[in-house]
Amino acid sequence: MTETAAASPMFLERHYTVKELADAWHMSHVTVRSWFRGEKGVIRYGPAKIKGKGNKQTHVQLRVPESVARRVYKERTGTVT
After folding, report:
1. CA geometry: angle at 1 spanning 61 and 29, to 5°?
2. What CATH number corresponds to the domain at position 43?
3. Is the dihedral of CA 46, 49, 52, 55 positive or negative?
4. How many structural domains compose the chain?
5. Residue 36 domain-assigned (yes or no)
6. Within a domain: 61
7. Per-residue pLDDT for the chain (81 aa), expressed as one digit of tens each?
8. Is 76 helix (H, G, I), strand (E, B) or coil?
């Protein structure tokens, strides 16, 4: 993650997938997804419908701006990456 992220507008920041953050932080993607599920500034896209056909769930994709990732990581762990 770059030092200039705080100076850039959020739409120009690097945006991370849940998998990228989970791999970088050595955590489960389920944990990382739960951390960002309702977080302000996270981009969500995918089907508007929560449940798919039958019992299958559809997943909304998340893209996390670098500044949001840094803030949440610090809040949850007390350290900055």
Report:
1. 35
2. 1.10.10
3. positive
4. 1
5. yes
6. yes
7. 555 545 667 678 999 999 999 999 999 999 999 999 889 999 998 876 655 566 666 678 999 999 999 999 999 998 865
8. helix
Which residues are CB-contacts of 2 (< 8 A; sequence separation ≥ 6)?
14, 66
Domain that holds residue 49: 11-77
Is 25 exposed, middle or buried, given 0-12, 13-18 or 19+ CB atoms closer than 10 A? middle
Whole-number pLDDT of residue 61: 92
Distance CA 66, CA 76 (A): 15
Buried b (16+ CB within 10 A) or exposed e, 39-53: eeebeeeeeeeeeee
Helical H runs in 1-81? 18-25, 29-36, 66-77
Q: Is residue 2 part of a domain?
A: no
Indicate the pTM of the whole model.
Answer: 0.74
47 belongs to a structural domain: yes
